[in-house]
Design brief:
CATH class of the domain at 65-212: Mainly Alpha
Largest sheet: 2 strands, antiparallel
CATH architecture of the domain at 65-212: Up-down Bundle
Number of strands: 2
Radius of gyration: 34 Å
Strand order of the largest sheet: 1-2
Structural class: mainly alpha
Strand content: under 5%
CATH superfamily of the domain at 65-212: VKOR domain
Shape: elongated
CATH topology of the domain at 65-212: de novo design (two linked rop proteins)
Number of helices: 10
């Protein structure tokens, strides 16, 4: 008759069996904190959070939202004024709340030969300018790492500013009258150029040194 196993002997035989069973079930080695974090990051919830995260600069810095919001606000206001001037041009009516005597004479300016460039009314050109600029000022456009978008946005602002300066010169020295609505469009054009230039410069400073080469 074999002697009964003592407690230490039973533990010695059951321990290896239990360990082997746990290893077979995949529970033998507990996950460390980094492994649990990696597993959670690969979960669908983590993917959704990454997809909905706010856009950031190529260098990891937050998007310059003030340039986008201010640029969009200026473009929308300019678009509204340009739309009114376009309506006024094709309807032939006098602009509202604008004197028609003295140096301020909107009707004389909007019906002069300088109100049309290459057969296209200046009001329509302003409408197109602010419509395209409003798209360029969208947050997604500012967050895009494509340098061509930033270059096209800045070039478009330069073209608009050059046109506005030419029209100011024409009003002051050729027509000898100014239009309040036109002046408002010119000021808004200069403002959107300033915000675009400043935002472009700040984006260039935010990029890593390796990305600037």
């Amino acid at each position: 008759m074999a002697p009964p196993k003592t407690a230490p002997q039973r533990g010695a035989t059951q321990g290896p069996r239990r360990g082997a069973a746990q290893q077979a079930a995949g529970r033998g080695v507990p996950r460390t904190a980094p492994e649990r974090g990696a597993a959670q990051g690969a979960s669908p919830r983590g993917d959704r959070q990454a997809a909905t995260a706010p856009p950031s600069e190529p260098g990891g810095r937050p998007t310059l939202r003030w340039t986008s919001l201010s640029g969009m606000a200026i473009s929308v206001v300019g678009l509204a004024i340009a739309a009114y001037l376009t309506y006024d041009h094709f309807s032939g009516s006098a602009p509202l709340s604008c004197p028609d005597t003295g140096i301020v004479n909107c009707l004389k300016v909007t019906t002069s030969s300088y109100s049309v460039i290459f057969g296209v009314p200046v009001a329509v050109l302003g409408l197109v300018f602010f419509a395209v600029m409003a798209v360029f000022q969208l947050p997604r456009m500012w967050a895009s790492p494509d340098r061509r978008i930033g270059g096209a946005r800045l070039a478009w602002a330069v073209i608009g500013t050059g046109t506005a300066l030419w029209l100011v010169y024409a009003e002051l020295f050729r027509i000898n009258n100014i239009c309040l609505y036109c002046t408002a469009v010119h000021v808004l054009t200069l403002m959107v150029f300033a915000t675009t230039a400043i935002g472009t410069a700040l984006r260039a400073d935010a990029r890593p040194v390796s990305a600037r080469r």
